[in-house]
Design a protein that fits this description.
Length: 320
C-alpha cells in the first residue's frame, strides 16, 4: 500500500506550535471580564505595555537586548491613548498586559526608544516566543480598535467594553468585535512527480518563492478556497486538501491556515497580474531553497517561523 501525505498528520502532531507568533500563553479570560479590569490594570505598577505607533512597536534599545514590553513610566512621554487601550490578558504571575496606541510618531520617539515594524520584530528575533505571540495579539487588536472609533451604522463614537475587546456605539445598538481575516496558504503537491508548486509575487524579496495563498471569501469553505485560489493563480486543479498548521499573522490581523493540496493537473497557466513566476520544484530544489533563506543569488524560501517555510520543511520531512 502506498503511503500518502494526505492520509496522516506526520511529521508533527501540532505543527502550529513551530511557527512564529504562536507562543502566546497569556490568560485572556475572554468570557469573564469585568468593566473595571482595564482601569485597574492601568493603575497597577506590575502592568506592562505594548506601545504601538503608526503600526510599529516602540522598543527600548539601550540595553543588551531590545525590550518590547514597557512600563508605564516608559510610555508616559509617548502620549499614550488610553481610550483605545486593549487589555489583552494576564501572565503566569497575574500581571496584566495592555496594548495601546501612542500619539508620538514613529520617527519622533524619545531616546532610547525606536519603532520597529512587526515583520522585523519577528525576523530579527527581537522578542522571545511568548512575548512575540502576545505582541501579535496586541497589535492586531490595536489596529482593529483604531479602525472602529466610530460606528459603521450611524457614525457616532464607539466606546470600548470588556477591556477593549468589544466596542459599542454610544448612540445606537451597534456592537463590533475583534476582526480576524482567514487566509488559506497551500503547498500544492504532485505526489507522482514528487514535486511542490511555488510562486513568487512581485513584492517578494529578490529570488524568493513561497506557497500560494489567498483570502477565504464569505460563504466559502477553507478547502474550496484552496481549490479556487490555486486554480486562479496557477491554473492547477486541486483534489484532496489536508490541514496542517495555522499561524496568527498580525499584518494587520490575519489567521494563516496552512494546508497541503493534492495536484490533479500539472500544466501551469499562471495569473501574470498576481505572480511573476510559478513553477514546480523537486525535493532537492526545495531543500536548497530552505538552506538559502532570503538569499539573492539563487532561489530562496521564506524565513523560519513563516508558515510557508513550515509547510515546505514538513513536506520534505514527513516520510523520514
Amino acid at each position: 500500500m502506498t503511503l500518502s501525505l494526505f492520509d496522516h498528520d506526520a511529521p508533527h502532531g501540532e505543527a502550529s506550535r513551530l511557527v512564529a507568533f504562536s507562543g502566546n500563553r497569556l490568560d485572556r479570560r475572554s468570557e469573564h471580564r469585568t468593566e473595571s479590569e482595564l482601569g485597574d490594570a492601568l493603575k497597577d505598577k506590575a502592568t506592562r505595555y505594548f506601545a504601538i505607533t503608526q503600526g510599529r512597536l516602540a522598543m527600548r534599545v539601550d540595553g543588551a537586548a531590545p525590550q518590547g514590553l514597557l512600563e508605564a513610566d516608559d510610555i508616559a512621554a509617548m502620549q499614550p491613548q488610553h481610550a483605545d487601550a486593549v487589555l489583552i490578558g494576564w501572565d503566569a504571575n497575574n500581571a496584566a498586559r495592555i496594548a495601546l496606541p501612542v500619539g508620538v510618531a514613529a520617527e519622533d520617539l524619545p531616546t532610547p526608544f525606536k519603532a520597529i515594524d512587526s515583520r522585523s520584530v519577528y525576523r530579527q528575533a527581537l522578542l522571545d516566543e511568548e512575548t512575540l505571540g502576545a505582541f501579535a495579539q496586541g497589535t492586531s487588536l490595536v489596529t482593529w480598535a483604531l479602525a472602529n472609533r466610530f460606528c459603521g451604522a450611524c457614525g457616532a463614537a464607539m466606546a470600548p467594553e470588556a477591556g477593549g475587546y468589544r466596542r459599542r456605539c454610544t448612540a445606537c445598538p451597534h456592537v463590533v468585535f475583534p476582526r480576524t481575516d482567514p487566509v488559506a496558504i497551500m503547498l500544492t503537491v504532485d505526489e507522482v512527480g514528487d514535486r511542490c508548486l511555488l510562486g513568487r509575487s512581485p513584492h517578494f524579496p529578490p529570488g524568493m518563492f513561497s506557497c500560494l495563498a489567498g483570502f477565504i471569501e464569505p460563504g466559502e469553505t477553507m478547502e474550496d478556497a484552496v481549490r479556487r485560489e490555486t486554480l486562479e493563480e496557477s491554473g492547477i486543479t486541486v483534489g484532496r486538501v489536508r490541514y496542517h498548521a495555522s499561524q496568527p499573522w498580525p499584518m494587520p490581523h490575519s489567521l494563516m491556515i496552512g494546508v497541503y493540496a493534492e495536484a490533479r493537473s500539472l500544466t501551469i497557466a499562471r495569473d501574470t497580474a498576481e505572480l511573476e513566476d510559478c513553477r514546480w520544484f523537486d525535493r532537492a530544489e526545495t531543500e536548497a531553497m530552505l538552506a538559502n533563506v532570503l538569499g539573492e543569488d539563487k532561489a530562496s524560501a521564506p524565513p523560519p517561523g513563516a508558515i510557508a517555510h513550515r509547510l515546505m520543511r514538513d513536506w520534505l520531512d514527513w516520510r523520514r
